[in-house]
Amino acid sequence: MNANAFFTRFLDADRSLLALARLKRGSVGTRILIGVVGAGVALAVRAAGAAFYGEITGFMILLPGVILAALAGGRLSGATAVFTALIGGWGVVALSSGSGAGMQPGLSLVATVNFIIVGLFCAWLGASLRRTLARLDAVVSALSLSNARVDETEDRLHIISELAPVMLWMTDANGDVIHLNSDQRLFWGDLADLRAFDANAILHPDDRDRVLTVSQQANDARTGYVVEGRHRRQDGEWRVLRTEARPRLNAAGEFMGMIGVNIDVTDARAAEAALRDSETRFRLLADTAPVLIWVTDQNRQRAFVNQAYVAYFGADYETARAADWRASLHPDDVERIIAESIAGEATGEPFSLEARYRRHDGEWRWLKSFSRPRLAGKTVIGFVGVAFDVTDMREAQARLAESEVRFRTVADSAPALIWMTDEMSRIVFANKRYRRFCGIRSQKQLADAWRRLIHPDDEMVFEAAFLRAFQARDRFEALSRVNHPTLGLRWIRTEGVPRFDASGGFQGYVGASLDVTDAKQAEDDLKHINELLEVRVAEALEEKAAAEAHLMHAQRMEAVGRLTGGVAHDFNNLLTVVIGALDIILRSNDPAKTKKLGEAALAAARRGESLTHQLLAFSRRQALRPEALDLNGLIREGEPLLRRAVGEAVDFKVKLKRGGARVKVDPAQFEAALLNLVVNARDALGDVTGGKGARITIQTMNCAIEAGQIAELAPGDYVCVTVSDNGSGMSAEVIDRVFEPFFTTKPVGKGTGLGLSQVYGFARQSGGGVHVVSTVGRGSEVRLYLPPLLAEDLPSPVAASNAGERASTRGGRMLLVEDDPSVAAVALDLLESFGLEVQLAESGPDALEALRNARFDIMLTDIVMPGGMSGIDLARQAAQDWPEMRIALTSGYVGDDVDQALAGTPWPFLRKPYSTEQLRSIVDGRAALPAE
């Protein structure tokens, strides 16, 4: 027999013994029978070995029978087996050895006693083993049942965990995840190995440290915890989970880990945030509303009031909320309002109240309140109320009612037919006079009463006129005839205006009709009179027109006469010097005298040039050459000359603005204007007593001109140059005419009257203006306003570089385009003296022909020329065809149109009359470009 077979049989013997031990003991007889059977089996084994034992008792072989009997039947069966086996054993011994003759008597007793003791012990041991096995079976059965119940509980818990509508998880004592239910796995993803679970990967970075710290502290302290944080769902979306965990303890109270639940509260938190936001918006809206708002609970107590409510009662929030609103009611309204309030709340429907309440300042105000129930399902849990202050509205309604009474009283007492229509042009009101005139006795007759009276020939015209005005919502006027039953044919003038409500909505017309029969008759009579007067009026108008034409002609002739007289006076003086000097030069051979008279003639010619420039400046037809400059520098340079002009007896002061006064003007014209102002100021000082205390001040400053402050100036910032004196001053009449040409208050021969005209023309042409402030006997102040220099007006380095390049050109061939022979002869002589080869052309076409036939380095052309082509047109054509040639322009007078064209040209300009040096500057390329 191999080991496996033996072990198998051994296990089967164990099962047999266990089967014996599990036998029911039954009755006493049954247990005695089991003992007898056990002993019998043992005796059979002893009898079978009789030959082996010989004379030895061999009672020990009987003990297994005793043990088996005790194991099967208990102690009674074991004892029965002991005594039965002892008796039977001695019988077997006797049979096998013949009455036991071979055994000594003492040994027989020992064997007997020994067997009884050992047998009873074995019986007790077998019975105890039976009881022990029975207990073990009970324990095993209980354990099996408990295990079955545990398995069933675990199965139920697993099913519950999987079916629970929340996310369940479980950790061990070390905090490692050992279980996730289906919802949790669905949320985080189905983790194949829970040991690889990484909390850092599923927690939001902003919540990670907080959540892990709370869970770790709870795990260390073996306590539960609650925490919220954002977890990343397997689709990548962050969701807010509320985690609630409790510790797991075994029967011995040992910590086994944590079990917890995760609840997705994202939507709940969003709803709570929305609710808080809604609550905030409600409170903001309620506190912003200009009406009283409150919310009551089921006990009719104020749960909320807005700021308008608090302000009305003039207390803090809690005091106003807890205050009894009934205490503020007017005594005359208390009983009525309380009854209406109780009745309104009892209906569970919206209701309104209107009563007087005392405001915090003691004034009684009418409030109209509207209450609406708050429902939880169908149960009223309170009311929401709003109250409006309608005191002003009630007063307005009272005034409106009073106004309506006054209107009807006035309308009924007015001596006119007053009527009113609705938006559909139906008459809705007519005063008593209208009703009497039209014979209206009932409201039904009001609609067509007028139509029944109007003359048939005027009915269509009247209705068409009213329809046009009605559609346009415009004023309506009409003159029509009516056939009155007692008064006969009457002329009625009707006027109506549209009515609009406060929001601009059209409401109809209100109008009045007057009986103008007498006035119409008077008008017809006047027509006849007017027809007779028309002829006489026409004749009178013709005579008046002729007289006005003669007067205007006389005024123009007077102005021209004054202008020509003044110009003739000054030019006659200048020509006297020029003609006389030239006459003497022609007859004299004295070089010194010739030089002196030539200088005098040249000076007179310069004065004539200055006079021409003054006239052009006044008429704004002079081509100024503005430059970017600082007026302070010009004034400082000319200060010595100005001091000599005013004389030593006058206190001459100059106050210049710090930082400079930069403008863009013609420096020569500004110096001339300033000199004119200073000279006029000096002449005004003649009446200052003894010349003592005479004072002239020049000042520069920045001025801000507002709209309408000075009529001819646009609002803005200006550089202001003022010349003030403490002389005789000017009257208002003189100030009004001070800028007129040839107007002067000086004696004959003391002034031309062009000085201030020139200043005015220069200022206006430079974009500014002049303003005079003066009081008779207290001096004058002339303010010259000039626009400040802009950043774009500053000279650029590129322009200076180009000017340097132009200045580097010298000599060569020149084309002189000049139509005046005398001017051409002088210019030709001067140009040839510069070393130039000069060719003369008298018109633009001649110049173009010359340019095609020869090459020229420079062309100087007059602007105004015959032949239909101006000098500017010629210059543009030449610049396009011969771009390498330098071009310069010259003119004595150009006019507005040429001035505008000249302003945009890139070529230097030489003004006539010009000197040798000025002409040389053109040839050398040093002349200034025209200002844009």
UniProtKB/TrEMBL annotation:
UniProt modified residues of type 4-aspartylphosphate: D862
Organism: Brevundimonas intermedia
Residue span, PAS domain: 278-337, 403-473
All copies of domain Histidine kinase, residue ranges: 566-790
Coiled coil: 530-557
Keyword Disulfide bond carried by entry: no
Keywords of the record: Coiled coil, Kinase, Membrane, Phosphoprotein, Transferase, Transmembrane, Transmembrane helix
Annotated protein name in UniProt: histidine kinase
Enzyme Commission code: 2.7.13.3
Chain ranges of the Response regulatory domain: 813-927
Cited Gene3D superfamilies: 1.10.287.130, 3.40.50.2300, Histidine kinase-like ATPase, C-terminal domain (3.30.565.10), PAS domain (3.30.450.20)
Enzymatic reactions: ATP + protein L-histidine = ADP + protein N-phospho-L-histidine
Lineage: Bacteria, Pseudomonadati, Pseudomonadota, Alphaproteobacteria, Caulobacterales
A Pfam family matched in the record: Response_reg
Residue ranges annotated for the PAC domain, each copy included: 225-277, 351-402, 476-528
Listed InterPro entries: CheY-like_superfamily (IPR011006), HATPase_C_sf (IPR036890), HATPase_dom (IPR003594), His_kinase_dom (IPR005467), HisK_dim/P_dom (IPR003661), HisK_dim/P_sf (IPR036097), PAC (IPR001610), PAS (IPR000014)
NCBIfam families: sensory_box
Entry's transmembrane regions: 28-45, 52-72, 78-95, 107-127
Molecular function terms from GO: kinase activity
